[in-house]
UniProtKB/TrEMBL annotation:
UniProt keyword Thylakoid present: no
Cofactor(s) listed in the protein's UniProt record: [4Fe-4S] cluster
UniProt key word S-adenosyl-L-methionine: yes
Record domain Radical SAM core: where: 21-231
Record keywords: Iron, Iron-sulfur, Metal-binding, S-adenosyl-L-methionine
Stored NCBIfam families: NrdG2
Name the record gives this protein: Anaerobic ribonucleoside-triphosphate reductase activating protein
Organism in which the protein naturally occurs: Sulfurospirillum deleyianum (strain ATCC 51133 / DSM 6946 / 5175)
Amino acid sequence: MLKNVLADKAIHSITKFTTLDFPDHLASIFWFAKCNMACPYCYNPQIVRGKGEISLASALEFLESRKDRLEGVVLSGGECTLYPHLESFCEAIKRLGYKIKIDTNGTNPALLKRLIERTLVDYIALDYKAPKKHYTRITHHPHFEVFEESLHYLIQSHFPFEARTTLHSDLLSENDINAIIEDLHVKGYQGIYYLQKYLHVNETLGVTKEQQNQFEMSKLTPLLPIELRNF
């Protein structure tokens, strides 16, 4: 299957080296074009709205040339699970000896399940965008239950993953974050919950302004261990 799609330009760009995005591994990031959400704070509008510029063949050639320097690959986006041949692409990456991390919004639970069952992924970062009552407002995606299916599966399978939320204090309050924490706790999530601070850039998907509201960490429930990123 893969050789039939090697010319596909599904990847918008490549970050050649990162020490931050794949826990305990030196990695590169493949940014897949397109997304099925429209989060207003998204700092990658050119990836969400744009087209792929790099073919799968070129991406694999890059990995071949970095075998002695990198350990892992992060498949991000956009939303990488929208790409219909991601499973075959992961097979090819694995043949090169790399570990794979996937960044996802959780809207393709069937694919995540196949990748895990076939040991084609080593770690997943799952974006818990907003509590159910605000999910569509934040994501412009109406199917919270699809995300929830991915979350349930990851918890029940005991697969190594993290739940994380991007925090813009004008969009999500302390009560909203507590609702997410409480939901994770009730569902049996036992990992670290990561809060990622919105970092303002001039061009976002929703022309988002800098945060005005104060966010008080002291108001968060202690049901889960919380780690802060970019704070």
